[in-house]
Amino acid sequence: MKIAPLTRNPSGDFAGDVTGIDLTRPLTADQVAAIEAGMDRFAVLVFHGQHFDDDTQLAFSRNFGELEISSGGEMSKPEDRRLKLEMADISNLDRDNRVRTADDRVRLGALGNRLWHSDASFRAIPAKYSLLSARIVPGSGGNTEFADMRAAYDALDDATRAEIEDLVTEHSNAYSREVIGFTKDDYGARNQDKLHPVRHRLVRTHPVTGRKSLYLSAHIGTIVGWPMPEARAFIRDLTEHATQRCFVHAHVWRPWDLVIWDNRTTMHRARRYDDQREIRDMRRSTIRGDGMTTPQQEAA
To answer: What is the CATH number of the domain that holds 112?
Structure first.
């Protein structure tokens, strides 16, 4: 297995192109360790030509920890699900594999994926890795962009790093969907308990490398102890800083690509494509994190 860097930013290599390994077959402990070492260095790894089905993708994913239940699966009715609960359906298809209409509520909610975010930051124990498999890709558009939160932290001035060191933010799915026009009522009474804000540190330290990074996401609604308008303006400033082009790698999808990213040290977003005429069928498995970033308290 070899890894070639795809992007270099002021802090080092970001995103790696991996060759010489078939992820659909059982891996040795050394191979798993090599992938994890690559993740620690690059934060995003790209593997081409990995012909997964859902079962082999889930089997591969379990090499890295406990699988999460997808939030979309949790909030949907069983009769509306297209995939298993452990598989997030990142597509424009309904249960019958038909393209969702322009006014479909699931389609509209999924537009939140076009905001810069970190997967599952709305959980008290947020996600570690995300693994996204491309089954069908559109002819144009639909790329995924990744921002290096380690490099973004390194580029802050000393005064800002000191200011944010101990700040705690509140995250909820409701905050990110509010940006695109949804309200809490749109989730229905049975899902209200899943919208309660959770708390996370704004600065995280990687457990292996010791590198610090910003922990930003569209799911952030406020900073604990700050007036909400001031908090949101500050988070917007940090996000603009962190998503400068020098910190970003854009992945152009090919069929059967698998991309793995570390949600602790990156943000990402999907890019627009013609989802009424073309199909984009992507399937994501997600690895649960190892613990909370900060103790949970009753959110304000």
So the answer is: 3.60.130.10
Is the Cα torsion angle 214, 218, 220, 222 positive or negative in sign?
Answer: positive
Domain count, the chain: 1
Q: What angle do CA 62, 176, 155 make, to 5 degrees?
A: 80
> For residue 198, what are the β-bridge partners?
171
Residue 298 domain-assigned (yes or no): no
What pLDDT digit, counting tens, does each position of 241-292 carry?
999 999 999 999 999 999 999 999 999 999 999 999 999 999 999 999 999 9
pLDDT at position 76, please? 66
Q: How far apart are CA 200 and CA 249, in angstroms?
A: 25
Amino acid (one-letter) located at 241: H
Domain that holds residue 139: 2-288
DSSP β-ladder status, 248-251 and 144-148 = antiparallel
Percent of residues in the chain assigned helix, strand, coil, to nearest 5: 30, 30, 40
pLDDT score recorded for residue 184:
74
Look at the block and give the residue holding tokens 């077959």: 25
E-assigned strand segments in 49-126: 88-91
Evaluate whether residue 294 is within a structural domain. no
Q: Residues of the chain whose pLDDT is less than 70? A: 73-76, 187-191, 298-300
Please give the DSSP secondary-structure letter assigned to residue 193: G
Which pLDDT score, from 0 to 100, does residue 298 have?
59
